[in-house]
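Please fill in the sequence for the structure shown.

STRUCTURE ENCODING:
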């Protein structure tokens, strides 16, 4: 038996409590949707990776450019801290999802520019598919018609 995950969702008129066995995730939950569940603790981490990869899918960017792209595309709803972004960039570079090269910004400052690799594009496709399935699975629960 795996770790017990206790989940509580509180709404204005209701509270939903459930518990599930983490060892069952991936074996008994909705694989028919192409969903390969990510551990709950990794949800934000995985979303950040997908956002970074998507920001680089059209052109290379430096760290601040990535932060600005994410903020612009989410109408400033998602604000990624530098303390989260740079460790993620280093990890993704190490894992072969990105490559980095030194260059100069429009303002003439030296900066590391990141580009997505073929492996990164495959990862972005997988992350997008997983996120789409996750949203489809929780939408009827959290936003019933």
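FILLED IN BY: designer on duty
SEQUENCE:
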């Amino acid at each position: 038996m795996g770790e017990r995950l206790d989940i509580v969702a509180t709404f204005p008129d209701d509270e939903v409590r459930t518990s599930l066995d983490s060892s069952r995730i991936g074996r008994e939950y909705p694989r028919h949707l192409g969903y390969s569940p990510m551990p709950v603790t990794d949800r934000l981490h995985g979303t950040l990776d997908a956002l970074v990869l998507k920001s680089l899918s059209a052109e290379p960017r430096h760290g601040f450019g990535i932060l600005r792209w994410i903020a612009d595309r989410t109408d400033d709803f998602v604000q990624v801290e530098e303390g989260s972004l740079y460790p993620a960039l280093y990890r993704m570079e190490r894992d072969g999802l990105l490559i980095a090269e030194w260059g100069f910004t429009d303002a003439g400052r030296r900066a590391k520019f990141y580009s997505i690799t073929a492996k990164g594009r495959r990862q972005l496709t997988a992350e997008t598919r997983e996120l789409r399935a996750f949203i489809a699975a929780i939408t009827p629960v959290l936003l019933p018609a």
